[in-house]
Design brief:
Radius of gyration: 32 Å
Order of helices and strands: EHEHEHEHEHHEHEEHEEHEE
Helix content: 40-55%
Number of helices: 9
Structural class: alpha/beta
Largest sheet: 5 strands, parallel
CATH architecture of the largest domain: 2-Layer Sandwich
Distance between the termini: 42 Å
Length: 390
């Protein structure tokens, strides 16, 4: 690539040395730097050695013709962005079509018009400069995003330690280990403990999201009893549901087997239950967990349903996107949906090879479904991603 402040470097490729010399002289007289190559193989070597800003390429050459040279240049990521102009005595429309199909950026017929040649070269060089600038900006943006994610990870990870201490003290106090509490003190501290637990769950979700995005989570799929799993989720969330004036139940027939990473699936179900409790419109809310065969390759479908205020269909896709924020239609909870919990659910389910979606409308509750593709006994392979260590 030409250095900063230097004229663009153009490579002239032709099997006739006289043609190479004439065109190089012309280009240098016009203020460009020019280099020549005789034949296709010599052209590929020259491009690798000097990375020109543009290639002027003859078609009819012995051995490797211009079409093949162009195809190879465009197939290599290191040279794909270099504009290629075919300069040839061929003028048939079929030849122009072949040049375009090979990846050529322009086509000039000999004898060419000199002002037209210069205009097209300069136009392509401007496009290449703009493309290079865009590529540099994109790489810089990627670097900044990596830096942001690294800083977020460090900050979020450091938040866990003091928050763990706060939650431990609150739990001791609420349990009465530090002395009796009035009913109002118990209510306020219980609410603080619940919200602190929510904050810890958000921290864990953010850390896990980063691992999932970087394919740094190794799944450990095994056979799961769906009925047992739902019953344990129901038992673990019952107290929090009752504190919000909501009711929790599970429904699953015996003998339904699923296959997945149990800790991840527990968090998926917990996030869905917590989301329903926060945004369903309690008190009086009923949240129901269920699982049943989906009938597609022995897949198992889990569902978390609530009879709350529902979600407008226009938000159904947005709520699964990272950092998207919305307020559940009609919910008087004072809480918005951060998007982290549902984004985690989506990525965790998809890491299993499954899918997740919501069915809801305002005033008719919401049903979040996720489907795992392969319980024990199916032919599907367990999904495992490369790990950098969890």
């Amino acid at each position: 690539m030409s250095g900063e402040g230097k004229a663009p470097l153009l490579l002239v490729v032709d099997d006739d040395p006289v043609n190479v010399e004439l065109l190089c002289d012309l280009l240098e007289a016009l203020g460009f730097r020019a280099a020549g190559a005789q034949g296709g193989e010599a052209a590929l070597r020259a491009v690798r050695e000097r990375l020109p800003d543009l290639v002027l390429l003859d078609v009819m050459m012995p051995g490797m013709n211009g079409y093949e040279v162009c195809r190879r240049l465009k197939a290599d990521p290191a040279t794909a962005g270099i504009p290629v102009v075919f300069v040839t005595a061929l003028s048939d429309s079929d030849d122009k079509v072949r040049a375009i199909e090979a990846g050529g950026d322009d086509f000039l017929t000999k004898p060419f018009n000199r002002p037209l040649l210069v205009a097209r070269i300069r136009s392509l060089l401007r496009l290449k400069a703009a493309s290079d600038a865009l590529e540099r900006s994109y790489r810089r943006l990627q670097e900044l995003e990596r830096l942001r994610d690294d800083l977020t990870r460090m900050v979020v990870h450091d938040l866990k330690s003091p928050l763990t201490g706060v939650l431990g003290a609150l739990e001791l106090t609420v349990d009465g280990d530090l002395g009796p509490l009035t009913s109002e003190q118990h209510r306020l501290l219980s609410d603080a403990l619940e919200r602190g637990t929510d904050a810890m769950a958000m921290i864990d979700n953010l850390l896990e999201l980063t691992r999932l995005e970087e394919a740094a989570v190794l799944l450990h799929p095994r056979e799961l009893d769906a009925r047992r799993l739902l019953a344990e989720i129901e038992d673990g969330w019952r107290v929090r549901a009752e504190l919000r004036g909501a009711r929790l139940s599970s429904d699953c027939a015996e003998g339904i087997a699923a296959r997945g990473d149990e800790p991840l699936l527990r968090r998926v179900l917990g996030n869905l239950v917590g989301n329903a409790l926060r945004h369903g419109g309690a008190p009086g809310l009923h949240v129901r967990l269920s699982a049943a065969p989906a009938g597609e390759g022995e897949a198992v479908q889990f569902t978390v349903t609530d009879d709350g205020v529902g979600i407008d269909p226009e938000h159904h896709d947005a709520i699964f996107r990272k950092w998207e924020s919305m307020r559940t239609t009609g919910a008087d909870t004072g809480e918005g949906t951060s998007g982290l919990g549902l984004t985690f659910c989506k990525m965790a389910v998809e890491a299993h090879g499954g899918r997740i979606w919501v069915e809801s409308r305002p005033g008719a509750g919401a049903a979040f479904h996720f489907r795992l593709p392969a319980p024990v006994g199916s032919k599907a392979e367990a999904v495992e991603t490369e790990t950098a260590g969890v």
